[in-house]
């Protein structure tokens, strides 16, 4: 077995641990969302769980990216997993005390989110340590597969567990999966060390340098700005799909719908992981976004659970192609020693859209779009004749608008010269 094969095996060990922890996180996310919605019947309360599980991680990403370049990335992954355990354990203990309130859940998921900010940039940067450039697409596809597991497997399992057991069992399972992730990193730590920087600047100097470096790369920066807009619309879908479905079905069917829809990510992630992708990542990114927008819009048109699942499946098929194209374009244009800082900066900028979506989705649904689709309102009497009226139909209309705009952005990305030049730069470097 050559050195590249051994390195890829070590990557697979770490990846396996992250796969299990992603499944556990998905169990908890689904269970807490259903638990809160059933207690409050509020889309706002539901979406706030997503916001608090995301915002702390988002705010800390620039700092954690600097840490990923300064310190051992595998040790950072262990610290992140242990911190996630602490957040879930806090919620579990408060539930045992019988004094659970909404703010306890928000605080617990915030603790886990802080830990994710430490783990995620270190994991992404560690890929460049372990995997040769020829295997970047396969590694990225497997990472997308691990991420998709929390949407593919977790909702179905969580729906069953919630119907037969108490939510506390779900939290205990999540804690166990994080322990598996820690064990996986410990297995390979002695075999591979993270390249270390010798010139230690201050955090803010390194963050500033990473931002200047990103600004100097016009194509990557243009791509990140456009993707931040796409992230806003994806964030609306994440926040509102559950509440929309719960207006037409129950939580068990919601779990089935999420798992079946997300199986589209499994199909395309496996294909990418096994065979890679075509040469033109820019074309694949643009093409995939256009179809993602189309299927997104169609999810909002119908009230039939089966049609929503079908278009959800097609929507999720496109996401690994979008994510892998984006990741490969950036990874092949960023120097390895800058990967941690630059990845965290890219993530921070692009995910501003998620913050805005998670913060506004509940208000938009409860106070703007759903009221517009009352049977006696103007949109209820016009557009409502096509997509339906009443609870959840305002969310459906918001999905239609968002999907159309995502498709338009997909077409725009393919026409930006600086983005197209990213592939040309990689080809020129390889020739020299």
UniProtKB/TrEMBL annotation:
GO: which molecular function terms? transmembrane transporter activity
Q: How does it sit in the membrane?
A: Multi-pass membrane protein
Q: What Gene Ontology cellular component terms go with this record?
A: plasma membrane
According to the record, the segments passing through the membrane are 12-37, 43-66, 78-97, 103-123, 169-189, 210-236, 256-275, 282-299, 305-330, 342-365, 395-414
Q: Where is the Major facilitator superfamily (MFS) profile domain?
A: 10-418
Domain of life of the organism encoding this protein: Bacteria
List the InterPro entries.
MFS, MFS_dom, MFS_trans_sf
Keywords, ordered alphabetically: Cell membrane, Membrane, Transmembrane, Transmembrane helix, Transport
Q: Which coarse location class describes where this protein primarily resides?
A: membrane
User: Where found in the cell?
Assistant: Cell membrane
Query: What is the recorded name of this protein?
Result: MFS transporter
What species is this protein from? Brevibacillus fortis
